[in-house]
Structure formats: C-alpha cells, structure tokens
Amino acid sequence: MAKPRTRLMDIAQHAGVSTATVSRVINRTGPVSADTRHRVLTAIDRLGYERPASERSGAATLIGIITPELINPIFATYAHAIQSEVARADALPVICSQTPGATSEGDHVEKLLDQGVSGIIFVSGRHADYRGDLSRYQRLHDKGIPFVTINGARDEVPAPDFSTGDGMGIEAAVHHLRELGHSRIALLGGQSHMVPAARKVEAFRHVMEQLFGEKDPIVIETFYTYEAAATATETLIDQGITAIVTGSDLQALGAIRTIKNRGLEVPGDISVVGFDDSMLMTHLDPPLTTVRQPVAAITNAAVQALFAQLHNSTVHRGAFIYTPDLIVRASTGACPR
C-alpha cells in the first residue's frame, strides 16, 4: 500500500521548493525571501490548507483596490494583478467594485477609512473623469492616506498615475490598417469626458489627418459595453467603413456581432481592432487583433509607489505612461476592393 503524502510534501511540490523551506515559512524558524514566502503561502491557499496562525492577516496592512466594475474583463485583470502584488508585499488586498445606483467610489473610500486602510489604489475611477468631483482625493492627501491612480492622470489629483499610452495604441492600430490598404477607418470609443477615451479620440484624429489628410474622421462615442457597440456599428456599416478601431475588447465583440448579423465577414468585409487584450481574445472566431495594455508593468509600478509612500519615501506626482503593444491576429485583413 502506497504511503500517504504529507501536507508539507504537497505544499512543497506545488510551490516548487523543499519541504524544509515550507517548514521555515510555517514555523518562522529561518530566513526565507519574500518571493519564496509568497509562493508557499499561495500553495497553502490553493491546496485548501489552513494558514498557520502566525501567517493569518488579522493585523495585516490593509490596501484598498477600487475599480469601476468587474464585468469588463480588463478591470478584473487589473484587480487580480494588483491584489497579487499587494499580497506579495505582505499586505491584505481589499477589492471594492462600484455598483451603479448603489455603492459608489465615495462609499467605498469611507468604508475603507472606517476599516483603518493604510493605502488605496484607484483604477479608472473618478480621477479619470473630467466631470468628476476630485475633492475626495485632496481629503485623502490631507489625512495622510497614501494612494495612487491607474489610467487617468489629472494635474489636480495629488498622487502619481500609471497609465497605458492610449494614443500610442490607437496610432499603432491605424498604421497597421493603413498597411493593409484601409483608409475608411472609424473609431468606436468611449465617452470623451473620460481621460483614456479622450486620449484615444485625440490620437485618432491626429493620425487620420497625418496619414490621410482627413480632418474630420468618423468617431462614435458610446459606452464601453458589448450592447452599445453592437448598436453603434449599424451606423458605421451604413457609412461604408472598411475598418473599425474600438476603445475596448467588449466594444470589438459587439461590433463583430453586428457585422456578422448583417451578413458580412470579419475581416473579409470589415476589419476590427480591439483595445485591452483581455482574457480569451485569442480564442474568438476570428481571434481578435487588439492593443494590449501593459497590465503587469503598470500594476507593479503602482503598488511599488504606494508602498514607497507607506515607508515614507518621496514619490513624484504626475503621469507615468507605459507603452502598449499591438497584437495582430485574424480580425484584421486586406481592405476589400
């Protein structure tokens, strides 16, 4: 009869370390690097074992992560990446998702403050809205609560912001379509009172004038949702476009649905470019050409900046822009004759 495996052996194999290392983490009896400790604790959690009392987070440093929603895959991707970085830094992440008509960003901030939060990371929050009330960010600054923002730098917000180069992504997409022979290109984006959407529109207008001399290109502003994009694409098809650059992968999916419902092909009749490269985009039919946000680089830098503030280090305000990549797949092709 085979000898049953021990808990230490299971954890060690899952974490890729020795059983002695697992023992040192559990019993805190020797030096272990932060990365190794994180791998061991992750293995314990994933295997369903109870963490040792010394590793439970009753008195952990609380870090709030506030996102607009989790339905859009890119926000879920950011939330997951941030919480992983926060946990690696030996703190407890608390993810807060806004609910339209119910729980707002302000509600979450107040609740986090009541819970004694040490710092907050805002993802595409009110800081990214030109119409947004920015007073809460100044109040956090005045209270001495460290925070950083992602994807929405504003000069008025007293914190560093870490953002995708939206304009660079749009320009890369249009250059790619031009190389395929397209000139009737439309932008289907978000509402330009939001910083990332405004950057996309500005870049699209600039590159269309630069490449084609078109001073008033076709731009539709709508919500970053599947349904809104599907409806807006009806108008674009009627206008005779041969390529659509969208502001999000969800919008790209909506555009593709309408194109196919109209009896047209992607990319045979109309090419489509997404934005985000969220999960499963490579498994679509056709796989989606899209602009990949550098999520790992952005979240790593944002978390480091937040913890630098927690450790009383000087952190520069302002916008830190990260270059996206255009991932070419099968949803873009040669312009039809």
UniProtKB/TrEMBL annotation:
CDD domains in UniProt: HTH_LacI (cd01392)
Record protein name field: LacI family DNA-binding transcriptional regulator
Keyword DNA-binding assigned: yes
GO MF term (any one): transcription cis-regulatory region binding
InterPro entries: HTH_LacI (IPR000843), LacI/GalR-like_sensor (IPR046335), Lambda_DNA-bd_dom_sf (IPR010982), Peripla_BP_I (IPR028082)
Keywords assigned: DNA-binding, Transcription, Transcription regulation
Keyword DNA-binding among UniProt keywords: yes
Protein origin, superkingdom: Bacteria
Pfam families with a match to the protein in the record: LacI (PF00356), Peripla_BP_3 (PF13377)
Domain HTH lacI-type intervals: 6-60
